[in-house]
Write a structure and sequence with these properties.
mainly beta; Collagenase (Catalytic Domain); Immunoglobulin-like; 3 domains; six-stranded mixed beta sheet; 6 helices; 30 strands; 11% helix; globular
């Protein structure tokens, strides 16, 4: 079997923050908690388009719709929450220096911002300024002048609209998400990964929308789940889990709706959840999105290089035999858990792929079609044919197609076929893996079906 290539065309986004500590957006919006939300209080948010957007530099493909891409990015967020933007123009080319904001919320593609990026390959950066109370008072967005961009899917370039949409999420106060299919996940694929245009991050995931509503509303008619993850006692001492990923799937469809990363106290919170039945899952951040990808330069996740302590993936018990959790409108639910610590995990999926490539970008699928999917990582050779499933009745796995592939990776890679039902709802879906020994691992939101 021929050896296939490993895609290197996925690069971390970056977020530069100033003046205020960063907190997880799913934990900020608690009216009775004393935690100040890191969000805009002034409405509308006045955004200035730099004149560089009208005369873009040479690293942006000629004919690309730069202004249209930026406008679409703003519209995506305004459409999912109580957010209003007002567009203005500015001759300014560079974003404000750290700790010296000018109260102009600039979006710029000028090459004069080269010093902001240095040798970084990040496609975009957002510099956020907050007041002493935590409210955002300025946010500037710049694109990396050392990287190539387009709006038509040209291979080897970053998609302008996807980059702008991610950075506007930072402008609003959102952090990186551990949901692979989320626009706010830490990495952006280049066009051409999987042999396809990289357009999926133009579309906000349910997780992105929940995050925006957690900060800005509209939350009427929604509920929430919060709690703590505590590691089982070792030598008589229990330990809070720092950097555990807790995510909720809709039981009816299997769609991943929201995720949260636990704070040093072990706390998590999933806010603005539509009423329904949910499956709540917790696991360590040691997959395609790692704890180090979530940790910013400062704030609540500073120094988070790995989930501490590591624990076994589990499904929350809930209050029924089916382990589902019922969320009702305008009701806050509390659900914590003691978890089994796991210092010797053997099942660690790291990469996903299709069309002969592996990456960390979500796999764009279409309803009514069949696809061959790759998963690579430690312990994947210990997966039985019946140990692979998708958390949705709309996506089926053919166990007879399980094959061990040959990629240039230090760990095993397997492939299998999935069939998407013609009526599969748009959204993000997880791959569930179980080893022969019973160990569980999820790839949360690894499959995405765009509207």
């Amino acid at each position: 079997m021929s050896r296939k290539g490993l895609s290197a065309a996925v690069v971390l986004f970056a977020l530069i923050s100033a003046q205020a500590p960063v907190r997880a957006y799913t934990l900020q919006y608690r009216d009775n908690s004393g935690i100040v939300a890191r969000r805009w209080l002034a409405r509308p948010i006045i955004v200035a388009f730099s004149s560089s957007l009208s005369s873009p530099p040479s690293n942006i493909k000629t004919g690309s719709d730069v202004i249209g891409s930026a406008r679409h990015a703003l519209e995506h967020w305004a459409n999912v929450a109580d957010i209003q933007f007002l567009e203005t123009r500015s001759t300014a080319q560079t974003i404000s220096p750290p700790n010296n904001g000018d109260r102009i919320n600039l979006i710029t593609v000028s090459p004069e911002n080269g010093a902001v990026f240095g040798t970084s390959e990040s496609p975009g950066r957002t510099r956020v300024f907050s007041d002493s109370g935590g409210a955002i008072v300025e946010a500037d967005i710049a694109l990396n002048p050392n990287e190539l961009f387009s709006s038509d899917g040209t291979p080897g370039t970053y998609d302008l609209e996807s980059t702008f949409t991610h950075e506007v999420g930072h402008l609003l106060g959102l952090e990186h998400s551990a949901v692979i299919g989320a626009t706010m996940q830490p990495r952006q694929a280049l066009n051409g990964v999987y042999g396809l245009p990289a357009f999926t991050q133009r579309t906000l995931s349910a997780d992105d929308a929940v995050g925006a509503r957690a900060l800005y509303g509209s939350k009427a008619g929604t509920g929430s789940i919060s709690g703590k993850l505590i590691g089982a006692a070792v030598a008589g001492l229990s330990q809070p889990i720092f950097g555990g990923h807790v995510f909720a799937e809709d039981v009816l469809t299997g769609r991943l709706i929201a995720g949260s990363v636990t704070l040093p106290s072990g706390e998590y919170r999933l806010d603005a959840l539509p009423p329904g039945s949910y499956r709540l899952i917790g696991q360590s951040l040691d997959g395609p999105i790692s704890a180090a990808d979530i940790a910013p330069a400062g704030g609540s996740y500073a120094g988070l290089m790995e989930t501490k302590p590591s624990f076994r993936t589990f499904i929350f018990a809930g209050r029924s035999a089916s382990r589902s959790i019922s969320i009702t409108a305008d009701v806050a639910s509390s659900l914590g858990s003691f978890v089994s610590l796991n210092s010797a995990a053997t099942l660690k999926p790291q990469l996903i792929g299709m069309n002969g490539e592996l990456s960390t970008a979500a796999l764009p699928l279409e309803a009514g079609k069949k696809f061959t999917i790759y998963v690579g990582g430690e312990g994947l050779d210990q997966i039985a044919a019946d140990g692979i499933s998708i958390s949705s009745p709309f996506i089926t796995v053919d166990p007879a197609t399980l094959t061990e592939e040959q990629f240039d990776t230090p760990y095993p890679v397997i492939s299998f076929e999935v069939t998407i039902a013609p009526n599969a709802p748009p959204g993000d879906y997880s791959i569930r893996l179980q080893s022969i020994s019973g160990e569980l691992a999820y790839l949360p939101g690894a499959l995405t079906i765009d509207p």
